[in-house]
Specification:
The chain is 53% helix and 3% strand. It is mainly alpha-helical. It has a domain at 3-98. It has a two-stranded antiparallel sheet with strand order 1-2. A hairpin with a 4-residue loop joins strand 1 (103-105) and strand 2. The chain is elongated and about 95 Å long.
């Protein structure tokens, strides 16, 4: 059964069970849980609809597991292709450097090498002298609003205490200035 059909069946059977429960309450027979369960099972297809929904959940779990495995496979394949492209670029660069060709015009592309300083690759930060490190500013302290809200008194001035839980949804409060 398709997902929309399962959803429709679940809604229809739930409504039927709710109507049946209302009838049982009107008759005063809703005290007996076993009677309610047996009546719902006998008069509706709610149990079958729930069973189909559980089967659909199992199928969804299988599909999710399979898709996650495929995503991992595709990620590994993508990384391998990216590495291959990097190797090919490096081979082209080596060939151009070996033949002293700074630019090449081909029917499909124009290639050129630029003279740049080699990139810096740091393998161990501990080996870098201290004079090359730049001091970073420390982040500003973060306000603990919960602790401030639950405090009895504060030494600060200009603290706004709002009477509502959601200040944006009620009338503006007066500021309490000390």
């Amino acid at each position: 059964m398709t997902a929309p059909a399962i959803e429709h069946s679940m809604r229809r059977q739930t409504e039927a069970a709710k109507a049946l429960l209302v009838d049982l309450r009107n008759q005063g027979a809703d005290d007996d849980a076993q009677l309610v369960a047996d009546t719902i099972e006998g008069e509706t297809n709610l149990m079958e609809a729930i069973d189909e929904a559980i089967a659909e959940l199992d199928e969804c779990d299988v599909l999710v597991t399979g898709l996650k495995a495929k995503e991992a496979d595709f990620e590994a394949r993508r990384k391998a292709i990216e590495k291959r492209a990097d190797r090919i670029r490096a081979l082209i660069e080596q060939a151009m450097l070996a033949t002293d060709q700074m630019s090449m015009k081909l029917p499909t592309a124009t290639l050129s090498l630029s003279k740049r300083a080699p990139g810096l690759i740091v393998t161990d930060e501990a080996d870098i002298p201290a004079k090359y490190w730049v001091e970073q500013p420390r982040p500003a302290p973060k306000l603990d609003k919960k602790a401030l809200k639950h405090s009895e008194s504060t030494d600060g001035e200009g603290i706004l205490r709002h009477p509502c839980r959601a200040p944006s949804r009620c009338m503006p409060a007066a500021r309490l200035w000390q």
